[in-house]
Amino acid sequence: MNTSLVIQSLFLLLSTVVALLIVLVIWRFAERSSPLKLFNITPVAYRLLVDNMEEGIIVLNEQNRVVSINQAAIKIMPRPTEQLIGQRIGTVWPELAHRINGSSDKLFELEPAEPEQPYHEICASPLCDRRGNVEGQLLTIRDITVRKERELLQQDMTRSMVHDLRAPISNSLFALEMLKTAVSAFVSPDDRILLDMTYTNTQQTLQLVNQILDIHRLESGKIPLSLSRVPLAAIIQDVLTAQQIRAAKKNIHIQCTLPPDLPPAWADTALLTRVLQNLLDNAIKYSPRGGTVHITAQATFCETNTAVQQLLISITDEGPGIPHTLQQRIFEKYITGEDANSGSGLGLPFCQTVLAAHGERIWVNSIPGGGATFTFTLAAPA
Description:
By secondary structure, this protein is α+β, with helices and mostly antiparallel strands. The chain is built from eleven helices and twelve strands.
């Protein structure tokens, strides 16, 4: 029995010695196999994986200098240079540097600086240390030229079709207006209701067509802005007067609070009027019968430059509010709520596009069941 224990102990000791010798040999091999050391195989595999990716990968440090870049990203660079590591991204790709410095968007599209260059989709992800401190960012770049060309072709076809619809609808509206005048004296009340309903629906269809065309023009920059000093208080009062009949039908009270020293706005009068009309129309539509719509305007200072004055205009309704899941997409085209009163989904995108053309912004604050407040900014002339 004792002999068996001795043999087992000797075998265990021998196994331990052999294991130590194996570890020593591996360690010596790792030291002598420079630069491809055994314990550096993982970084080498990572490098091969990144270099074989179709997407471009760029790693930037806190100073936006390139610390790592794969082969796909090198080919994408619009300003190729022999040495990219250590270069500021603004030196080799100014358009990309401008977007990542001036925007908090994690995913965005980068249009080509020249017609022959491709479109790119950029995904920016922060790189943090173990304590959560941002040490740089990872940029993933994908060529989306084929997709963008397809989208642009679809937009051109849609715009052409909508444009062709406007002429026959306008002619039908004119004919209905003439018919209403010609037969108003001898048509029955039921026929008058049908005629008025047809006229109203045709008029709304024409407005929808014009909205689609205006959004396309604004997005492509084909509607020039006629900027001037706009008496904001007077425009708000004009819009309120035009909406009084609709508000009276629902017994809605419109409360307008404007300071007596409200400065003018620097804007396009016609487009600003349509923005206010859209927002007030929505507020009346979604407010309950007998409710109140609040309109406020105030002068404040720009958040990014306290020396520049700007105007904040807000329109608040007492409607059902906007779900949180919809608030982030409410300004996208054709996005509507589940309410039966939801329109075409073009009014708010039109407002957002107009204000973006002015270099301003619009946002919504809403609690489901507690109404919604739409606020937008305007520049005040110096």
